[in-house]
Write a structure and sequence with these properties.
The chain is α+β, with helices and mostly antiparallel strands. It folds into two domains: about 10-100, Endonuclease I-creI (Roll), CATH 3.10.28; about 110-190, Homing endonucleases (Endonuclease I-creI), CATH 3.10.28.10. The chain is about 30% helix and about 20% strand. It contains six helices and ten strands; from the N terminus they run αββαββαββαββαββα. The strands form three sheets. A four-stranded antiparallel sheet has the order 1-2-4-3, covered by helices on one side. The protein is globular.
């Protein structure tokens, strides 16, 4: 997959791709020429959403806003503008309305860190997961192979009727080594770090 799509910078594209592997999605309104990306997280991850917006601000509309979601959940979200670049990505990442993993996807540390901040979880020091239940079997298997290309050994772990990716214990330190420099302070807890105790850094991705 090329390093750029249209006018997107490499950093912007990595943030978008990482988001598509996680909670982000692209859609196109009926009758409109181009698609847009929605970034939508819980209000508890406000700092993370604000950081994503700072990276994508020049291609986005208004700043993130809060809204009531399902039940007691309060969502915090923003949208990019409708852009040809998003239409191109939608055509690559969706098949008959279902999100897929493109064959030529190449992971890098920033993509992986965004994906982990979106969908990663740690139950215990050695139980680290990527919650990939949204993807069908073929895409999940493709993700296993693409993580393997980064030297990460993973398996598909059954979670009720779906599957998610589990990192082998030996690969957890490798994962942390790849992504820790790119995980913003408010999301360090996903790596088992206390965000209060962790040395504060400006929420900027290290390239």
């Amino acid at each position: 997959m090329d390093n750029t799509v249209g006018s997107l910078t490499q950093l912007q594209k990595s943030v978008i791709i990482g988001s598509l592997l996680g909670d982000g999605y692209i859609r196109q309104m009926s009758g409109r020429k181009d698609a847009f990306l929605e970034i939508n997280h819980s209000i508890s991850q406000r700092e993370y959403v604000d950081w994503k917006y700072s990276v994508l601000e020049n291609i986005s509309g208004r700043a993130p806003t809060a809204r009531n979601g399902n039940g007691r959940r309060i969502a915090y979200r923003f949208y990019t503008r409708q852009l040809p670049e998003m239409t191109e990505l939608m055509n690559i990442w969706y098949q008959n309305g279902t999100k897929i993993v493109p064959d030529d996807l190449e992971l890098n540390p920033i993509i992986l860190s965004i994906w982990f901040m979106d969908d990663g979880s740690m139950c215990r020091e050695s139980d680290v997961y990527l919650n990939t239940q949204q993807f069908k079997s073929a895409s999940q298997q493709a993700l296993v192979e693409k993580l393997g290309a980064l030297g990460l050994q993973v398996t598909l772990n059954k979670d009720k009727q779906y599957h998610r990716i589990r990192f082998l214990k030996s690969s957890v330190p490798v994962l942390k080594n790849i992504i820790s420099a790119h995980v913003i302070p408010s999301m360090q807890y996903k790596l088992g770090y206390d965000p209060v105790e962790t040395t504060r850094r400006s929420p900027a991705v290290v390239l």
